[in-house]
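Quick note —
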Amino acid sequence: MLGGLLFVTGILIMAVNWFMTWTTRPPTYEVPVYHTPRLSKEAPEETIDTTSALDDVPVLESAKKLDVFGKMDWHRRWERLPVRFTVLTTLAVVIASLFEIIPTFLIRSNVPTIATVKPYTPLELAGRDIFVAEGCYNCHSQMVRPFVAETKRYGEYSKAGEFIYDRPFQWGSRRIGPDLAREGGKQSSLWHWLHLENPEQVSPGSVMPSYVHLLDTKINFEMIPERVWAAQAMGAPYDFDIADSADIARKQAEVIAADVVSQGGPVQRGELMTFDTKAIALIAFLQRVGTDIFATPEAEPTEETPGDPAAAEEPETEEVAAR
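Predicted structure written out below.
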């Protein structure tokens, strides 16, 4: 009630203010008109004063020359040459930009990395493409901001080094659904399967639409090597033959599908086997998201230093001496 009264009062005050402003306006407004000099292809001849106000002052000659240079109005002269000035300005901006941008691509130390963050597997790459193609990022961001409210709800805040293989990254703060930056391992594979089929089965009241078509659409494994090649070209360090990507993806799909079946999911939908569906690829991606940061770093192999031959012979020498 009070809020509505304040709102209406504000509207009335605004109307009165507008009316009084309108009725007390001057009959005419005197607006000065300024004329700028016409542009020309050539700078007009100007007499340049080469004398300096510092001529009689005991200062360095360089200071006197700088004073004369400041009187030349060289910037004003260039402004009267629009084409030349535009070209010079563009060159200056491009050159300066290159000096700033190129090092960020060439100096690897500029890119923050985390030892446990690895490239996506071929199947996870395919699942990520499905995630992007379906527009999931419009409702689900993948970036936990360093705020207490977010870390308590979603977990550890996101680090820049987690996204070095994400192209494009899925950052954002617009969340119609929950953030998925730490989704990996939170739910079972069957939960994700049912969630895609009908979100309200596992999340009552969810406004997410059904993505049942992913359960009925066959994934094209033969296209995965091209996607892996693109990721490798962008810097993902894969240590297997790209031609084997399709087989690697199939094996992982079979493992995830077996997990779904073991939890009570279907072996197949119609004539389509579960492991052949796009849903399995998407589940593979969702189960991976945000888990690398918690992985245990691989131990670096240590080279065995060969012992000193003389030291190795010492026990034998002592034994002989004892005899």
